Amino acid sequence: MTTSTTALPSPVPPAERMVILDIIRGFALLGILLMNIEYFQRPLQALMLGFNSEQSGLDYAVAWLSFTFVQGKFYTLFSLLFGLGFIVFIDRAQQKDSAAQALFRRRLLVLLLFGVVHLLFIWGGDILHLYALVGFLLLFFINASVKRLMVWSVVLLLIPILLIWLGSLAVEAAMQVPEEAAKLQASFAADKEKLLQDIARGDVLYASGRYWQVVQWRMYEFQALYISPALLVFVPTILGTFLLGAALGRAGVFSNLEQHQPFFWRLMWLGYAIGLPLALIYGIYGTEVEVISPSIRNAALMTCSTLANIALCLAYMATLVNLYLHKVRFIGVLAPAGRMALSNYLLHSIVFTLLFYGYGLGLYGEFGRAVTTLMALTLYGFQLWFSQYWLQRYQLGPVEWLWRSLTYGKRPALKI
């Protein structure tokens, strides 16, 4: 027999949604697309090489703007929203006297399924599987106070910076010993040569490979990128940002925006004051940073990048809140796209892999960054219109409906 303590609650009705979170989510969706568009035409392992300096003219300018003001900031924003959503989800579920933790685990398992399908069969740059796996760690903080969430957030976000500095200092020390320096230089050269070979192989497969060849290559890329020491950076960064969002949610700053308007004004100005100079430093001096080449200089620049990502993420978020509180109407168009963020995110991958990859139209590598960015903006503009059109007729996006159905074990109403 099912009791009231184990029954799964019903999904949250659309009327109970926080519109500002949908607006921020819709904006984050744009930023993620503007970054991902590069890697629909570039193997994911090229991330290890950093900025693509082979571009010129308008392509270089567009790529640099994205590198400086978009890259890292919007995944951070999306991660923050995930943590904030965790608190909203758990608190609402607990109010209904339900098995909140069991429900959240089911929600994560379904998200993990979506992520694995996306990663293997659509596009290898998936972030959903990481969100789902790291999301299970949030259950250790289910009743944590705002202070505890903030402390853990800061500690976790500092771990990658500390690891980068320790690695760089160790390499610098070893370089002072001639024998060790020669070994390290040979090792770095071999690693880079292997990476360049992988990137060249990926270019060929994405440009002209058959579908199942590309699927197999995605599995190889996944192993190279994720089943590696990089997890020591990915996991603390994602969890730390989750907890930062959870702290904002538990503090209630989004439950009563008007009351917390001074907080958002301070957050906006402080975020820009810290984030813009650091982002510009990284944008100017960090275009030659390669993850595979540890050095004191690279560690300093990557520290600037990490801090800029957090500061500008918070500044962008606070700016949207302030515009919303001042009733600036145009930002409202972002909300429908934010309500359908998962469907729209997956559509990005479907559209651009079919457009660029060899098993689709085969346009891989045919366009520079300026043109592909224009393509991204065009698709996003279409999504703004279509999301509004869809939600005038249906309560949920198609993938959101499936997510809720599998999470709650029953099909919510779809049509309005």
Explain what this protein looks like in three dimensions.
- The protein has helices at 19-39, 57-69, 73-95, 100-121, 128-135, 146-174, 178-208, 211-226, 231-251, 261-285, 296-325, 334-339, 341-356, 369-391, 398-408.
- It is globular.
- The chain has one domain.
- The two termini are 33 Å apart.
- The protein is 71% helix and 0% strand.
- The model is unreliable at 1-8 (pLDDT under 50).
- The chain is built from 15 helices and no strands.
- The protein is mainly α.
- Pfam families: DUF418.
- Residues 248-410 form the DUF418 domain.
- This is DUF418 domain-containing protein.
Quick gist of this model?
The chain has 15 helices and no strands. The chain is an all-alpha fold.
Fill in the keyword field for this structure:
416 residues; mainly alpha; transmembrane helix; DUF418 domain-containing protein; DUF418; Bact_Transport_Assoc; membrane
